Amino acid sequence: MNIPYLELKKVTALHTDEIQRAVAEVVGSGWYLQGQAVQQFEQHYADYIGTRFCVGVANGLDALTLTLRAYMEMGKLSEGDEILVPANTFIATVLAITENRLKPVFIDVDAQTLDLNLEALQQAITPRTKALLLVHLYGRCTYNESIQTLCDSNHLLLIEDNAQAHGCRYGTRRTGSLGHAACHSFYPGKNLGALGDAGAVTTDDEALAQTIRSIANYGFSEKYIAQHKGRNSRLDEVQAAVLDVKLKYLDEENRRRMDIARTYYNKIKNDAVRLPVPMGEGSNVYHIFPVFTSCRDDLQAFLLNKGIHTLIHYPVPPHQQTCYQEYNHLSLPVAEQLAREELSLPLNPTMTHEEVAYVVDMVNCKS
Ligand SMILES: *Cc1c(COP(=O)(O)O)cnc(C)c1O
Fold first, then answer.
1. pTM over the 0.90 mark
2. Which of 90, 197, 285 to mutate to test ligand 1, by most ligand atoms within 8 A of the CB atom?
3. Tell me: the pLDDT tens digits for 78-117?
């Protein structure tokens, strides 16, 4: 059997006709930016997430960068302020911080739950700490009451990186509505993916939404009147139309992801392979299914030899990257261990029962 990690062609094929009709409509309309398709998707996505506002932007990194930038323009953050961020995140989360001349303070995570280490979090807070950038990595909700209490008692902005967790729940609420603002990526491989780059910010804060919208459009408050030194980061009409179609099927596709994950959890039995602590129903949308093993490279080579393609998320944590030499001296042992041991098994809504069973069998037979 040959099992690719993810075939976007198959993901798109689940809804080809509807997507093609939606794209054709935009093409025929002659209106390609700042039009009805974006407005409609923003409304639908805000309703879905459960926030008052959604601002479409060009990609997930911009969603993060513009959110922090808007808080600076609003006087809620200033250069050099410290932003708490999990040490095991994707580098984009950290790039958004440093691009704004803010200071990332890396917090190590728990090896079993992958949640932020609460003690480390508390110890890291200084008078300059102004925000927590919470990342729902792999599709797992990392928000909880302790996080909320910590943010409240230290007057921190709580910003969610929801790039990997569209549709994820915390009780009856969705991630993306839990903090002051949330940043979403619709990179094609994400649970809700466009056919190119796209992103959004969701928030209940009207001033924040307006500021982001303005900065993303040259800083204009009205046409040709610039209130901020802005840039161009707009969601386009074609991508919005595609996303609006795919949003309708997100819950269904996430349920399929959860079914596959349940099979992995029930059937993978290999003492050398560790699975993260499972989460309550709905609070993990399994963007990625990570397993951890001290012989990761062996397992990856073994599976590839059996036709199963896997990926590593991520092989080098941000603080050890070449571009972050100023942080290379930091010791974040759990994040570093996870980077050495993580392997992502294929998991996506197009996988068949036979493919899932084959992955289980092959992981189990690796000695
Ligand atoms: C994908 C991703 C981003 C960046 O999104 P892009 O749309 O690729 O810019 C940011 N944070 C996390 C956790 C991501 O997975």
1. yes
2. 90
3. 999 999 999 999 999 999 999 999 999 999 999 999 999 9
Q: With cut-offs at 50, 70 and 90, classify the pLDDT of residue 248.
A: very high
Task: Compute, in angstroms, the gap from residue 364 CA to the centroid of ligand 1.
Answer: 32
Among 94, 187, 233, the mutation site with the greatest number of ligand 1 atoms within 8 A of its Cβ is 187
Angle at 115 between CA 134 and CA 109, to 5 degrees: 95
